[in-house]
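retry 2 of 3: previous attempt timed out while embedding heme C. Reduced batch size to 1 and resubmitted. Inputs unchanged:
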Amino acid sequence: MSVVKSLGILAALAALGGLTPSAAAAQSGATPTFTKDVAPIFQNKCEACHRPESIAPMSLVTFEESRPWARSIKNRVGARQMPPWHIDKTIGIQDFKNDRSLSDKEIDTIAKWVDAGAPKGDPKDLPAAKQWPSEQGWNFAKQFGQTEPDLIIKSLPWTQKAGANDAWWKPVVETGLTEARWVRAIEIRPGAVKGRKITHHAIARLQQKETDDLAANPNDAAGNPLPGTFMEWAVGKQGEMMRPGSGKLMLPGSKIVWDIHYSNGGEDITDQIELGIYFYPKGQEPKFRQVLHLMGATNAGGGSALGSAVDIPPNTVKATEGYFLMRENGRVESFQPHMHLRGKAMSMEAILPNGQLQVLSHVSDFNFNWHNSYVYADNAAPLLPKGTILKITGWHDNTTANKANPDPNVWVGYGDRTVDEMAHAWVNVTYMSDADYRAELAVRKQSLGLTIDKQQ
Ligand code: HEC
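retry 2 succeeded.
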């Protein structure tokens, strides 16, 4: 922002001093047009969802389609509500594998375009239309020399009636696995093209009884292990590939617990979501296991990992915090905050064994409609020594300032319904022995151009 502001001051000074011809040309060139400046941004950052037959309410492919939305576009991108990406840009790690946010410069271009009356510009400047691959194919199959994933698990069919309210569909489906298998990649897709119009997002959770203590999550009230997010999908994202040498372990008897958000598609549409799983070949097991942990933001008050400490009085903003001890060295792969309608913000900090505190990530504008898992880039995923404590803080806003709040005058506690609350993060950790951890640190230092510490 400060860069933008200081540029603004420079421009103002230039205006005071009288413009030289070349500065004037630069300034007239500075009025962005749709064809030259805005269309490339929309192609890269919006069309994935804002095109015909996709999830967003309007297409932003052509000038004629985009122009009526100019004001709303400026508001949404300026507030960083669109594209949906809620990481705070001012603190914590900023390099992600799946970042779909706009740069400050892109936001500035869009704002200037709208302020100038959203001009079309010269049709000759328009970039070639973006060709969207058929998203009904399987993305990774070719790379692995296959036509299909090794295992496809389908949710149960759901019909979303024209004009019906949003629905959350949570069928549970057996994986059918009779032996443990290591996963190297996962994809999710709606079963039919039309399904993209109604599938707001889909989360596949993996539920299995762990024998490895390091990997276990808490049990639910019925004594079953809580299912952990296996993959989260929204239009514009199809798959997740594990980092080299690491994988997820699926156990015999495991189940997929679906959590699918369907919205209105303007016509009756029936869909079934497909989860495609690629395994490492037998005998080629990866060295490292990625373990998905549920890290509660509510266990600091001595409550359970989950529920008892959620206690939000009416008309109040309330913070809760929880701590997770890393009993082994590990690389933190991703951060996915989970709260409901009163969710406002969530942060993940690392308290190192030497007492240092580092903010890893902060989601400052949590939105229940978007369950993003923020996946760190290869060179940014924090490598942390055993004994590190991960601190998760969640903030709930039960006031009228929270537009999603259905009723600020009621007390809110823990529960499954969206009007109840939760506060936890799903965090993938890849655990490593001391020797492997030192080796990974050395690789990281080298790739970042840092001097290698010979004393390891
Ligand atoms: C991952 C999918 C996705 C991406 C990427 C995305 N949008 Fe959206 N957008 C949606 C959905 C779904 C809605 C409707 C629900 C909502 O408002 O959250 C929406 C709503 C909007 C609205 C509000 C429409 C209204 O009813 O007033 C605007 C404006 C908008 N998007 C602009 C953009 C722009 C501009 C971009 C790119 C810079 C973008 N979006 C990228 C999915 C997306």
